[in-house]
Amino acid sequence: MTIVERALELVSGCELIGLGSGRAARSFVRALGERVRDGAVRVSGVPTSEETADLAREVGIPLLTLADADALDVTVDGADEVDPSLNLIKGYGRAMVREKIVAASSRSLLILVGEEKLVPQLGSRRKLPVEVLPFALPVCWRRLQELGCCPTVWTQDGQPLMTDNGNNILDCAVEPIADAAHLENALRAIPGVVGTGLFLGMANVVLVGKGEDFQLMEEMRRR
Fold this sequence. Notes:
By secondary structure, this protein is an alpha/beta fold. The protein has two domains: about 130 residues, Rossmann fold, CATH 3.40.50; about 70 residues, Alpha-Beta Plaits (2-Layer Sandwich). The protein contains seven helices and 15 strands. A six-stranded mixed sheet has the order 2-1-3-6-14-15, sandwiched between helices. A four-stranded antiparallel sheet has the order 8-11-7-12, with helices on one face. It has a three-stranded antiparallel sheet with strand order 4-5-13, with no helix packed on it. Strand 4 and strand 5 form a beta hairpin. Helix 1 packs across helix 2 and helix 2 runs parallel beside helix 3. The chain starts with a helix and ends in a 5-residue tail after the last strand.
């Protein structure tokens, strides 16, 4: 059984599902859409990006806004790093702010990753995305430099790119993070920072793909 097949089992009975962004989330959305078309499930989704919204419409999943949906049963998403406590770094796909909002609106967060995303400490892949308001870009860049984060503006062909929210991304070159909560607080204290790729204490279950098999990791902090 693959992680997508197991994820479909875990969300069985859920009516309101947050639909994440990225490769793993796209695989889940396609599989969920197939079950919707077959009449096996009746669900509505809240997408975390315009790309996910387009895919969900394509495969036949009815969509709602957060205002329409109220509390979601579960969000299914991917991650770029997962530490042993199920803390995450997300945002390589540039949708982390909407992903965090949708996850925070859900009763549970289910993460799908490959083995290569498991790390001993957040920051092991040396990149942490931070979304900032365009007006505040110079200030945020300087403050991140002062914190030792070495930011680089997300660009294409020399031009800054924008998120679905109309904001910039600063990719911070980081070392493995000794105190992720402290760093999160320091980053969020910078005027103009909209959100970071640190998802701390949010994931409830992580499914780790191992070819045609999977490993299930559950959060233990609140048990």
